[in-house]
Amino acid sequence: MSDAVGLTVPELPRNNRLRGRTAIVTGAGSHGELAGTGAAMAILFALEGAKVVIVDVDGDRANHTLRAVQALGGVAEVSITDITDIQGAQRVAELAMDKFGSVDVLINNAAIAPDESKRSDELWRRVIDINLRGAQLMCDAVIPHMTRGGRGSIVMIGSIAGLRGGAGVAYSAAKAGMIGMAKSLAFTHGRSGIRVNTVAPGHVAIPMGLGYSGGGWDNAVNARHTRAQAGLSGTEGTAWDVAYTALFFATDESKYVTASTVAVDAGTTEVMPIVMLPYLSSTPDSTAG
């Protein structure tokens, strides 16, 4: 393990699996020492040779990840962007083209998972807007560039809540929508060389899911133990487990794989009963998964 500017990063091999490619990762900001899925993917992809556009609505979080990438020798740019804004999504794609000359990989990771125990129309709209519509706008922004380039890989970061449901109705609906969107986009754009797949994480130790706020774990012992027991391995997953699955989809190693969904959950969705846990987040506005 290494401490890259305050962010704990495991020892990662550098095999240049994405050399010469540009990857956009939304919700890639970070804070504290624990990486979320977005930060982990940005770092891993950069170490595998990609030039990365780190997208987050929070500039401090985006730059925290940028410093980690640069400390490890990677190349990245930051885009402080609200992806629910059409022009904002377009600007992200334009930044990638202007700085790096292509858009080869899009990771739709930005998400919120607020407490839905007191549901409201405003909360529903906000969750759907960020988690689902933001992904759609980013796809709309990059697909023309991918089509002209003759190739592209789009990866939706969904959730097992989108496969089996969960405590958050809006969150589960949005994540299920991402899976459906991925299949439809794969069907529509496959002949243009664009593949679209979904990674559905289970109970992984990330800031958004476990309520890590830099000062310690909220309900750490109970939450982490319960989540670990939900999978067949009896251990909890990490952001890096998700990142490596997304990396496979991003590379040519998966060139014959599209419209697929892979659960990164230690078998939870296949053979284990549903374990319902409240969604804990350090702040309802956190968009780094």
From TrEMBL:
The keyword Acetylation does not apply. It comes from the Bacteria. One of its GO terms (biological process) is fatty acid biosynthetic process. Pfam families: adh_short_C2. Keywords: Oxidoreductase. One of its GO terms (molecular function) is oxidoreductase activity, acting on the CH-OH group of donors, NAD or NADP as acceptor. The keyword Hydrolase does not apply. SUPFAM superfamilies: NAD(P)-binding Rossmann-fold domains. Belongs to the short-chain dehydrogenases/reductases (SDR) family. This is NAD(P)-dependent dehydrogenase, short-chain alcohol dehydrogenase family.
